[in-house]
Amino acid sequence: MTSVLLVEDDPVVRAAITRALTGQGHIVHGVALAIEALREVTANKYDVVVLDLGLPDLDGGDALRMIRGVTNTPVVIATARDDEAEIIRLLNAGADDYLVKPFSSEHLEARLQAVLRRARDSKQLVIGGLEIDVNLRRATVDGQELSLTHKEFELLSYLAARQGEVVPRAEILASLWPSNRDDQTLDVHLSWLRRKLGERAAQPRYLHTVRGVGVRMVAPQ
């Protein structure tokens, strides 16, 4: 069974989501405050966290950063806020997915399963001088550790897992940014990754763009 930490201050909503997830076979523990959520993820192991943003003691974005400071447990944001800039900010801050209320129990379950599949598929990846430990969320190039945001790491490991393949842009966006399929978002993250890998689009080492199709990751020649 999957253990879910549900962080939602509205008791009616919390009860409804708990019933829905329990009905899907999950073990759900609900809390109403960010500080309670932080205590839970510090003391106990959960498979996934479902986090509301409008918490009474702390903004959900701050709660997300605090949770990310102590655990790599997948976090799915579930909130009524639908501002695109806010969604991008939270995904870059470490959220694994983002759901805008209201949503169906089937939609929530599908998103949770997708996040859990990505977590289960974690492994070690090596491409030339690039080494990625997906479980530890650590990447090094030629022995030097890379300082990556949560979403940069996800993009890097996603492409590395498909080494040698041309991964379509639409597929990357659908997998990593399901709530925001803007090409510019991908371009910006690729640019940041290239800079940290010590390359430029005009002189790629690891990340090769196939114009009009997608991105291929290969070892430097």
TrEMBL record:
Coiled coil location: none
Q: Does the keyword Phosphoprotein apply?
A: yes
Q: Which GO terms describe its biological process?
A: regulation of DNA-templated transcription
Which GO MF terms are attached to this record?
A: phosphorelay response regulator activity; transcription cis-regulatory region binding
Q: Which InterPro entries is this protein grouped with?
A: CheY-like_superfamily, OmpR/PhoB-type_DNA-bd, Sig_transdc_resp-reg_receiver, WalR-like, WH-like_DNA-bd_sf
Q: Give the OmpR/PhoB-type domain ranges.
A: 122-219
Record-listed 4-aspartylphosphate modification sites:
52
Cellular component (GO) terms are: cytosol; protein-DNA complex
Q: Which UniProt keywords apply?
A: DNA-binding, Phosphoprotein, Transcription, Transcription regulation, Two-component regulatory system
Q: Which domain of life is it from?
A: Bacteria
- Which protein is depicted? DNA-binding response regulator, OmpR family, contains REC and winged-helix (WHTH) domain
Which ranges of the sequence are annotated as binding DNA? 122-219
Task: Give the SUPFAM superfamilies listed for this entry.
Answer: CheY-like (SSF52172)
Kindly give the Gene3D superfamilies that the UniProt entry links to this protein. Answer: 3.40.50.2300, 6.10.250.690, Winged helix-like DNA-binding domain superfamily/Winged helix DNA-binding domain
Response regulatory domain: which residues? 3-116
**SMART domains referenced in this protein's UniProt entry, alphabetically:** REC (SM00448), Trans_reg_C (SM00862)
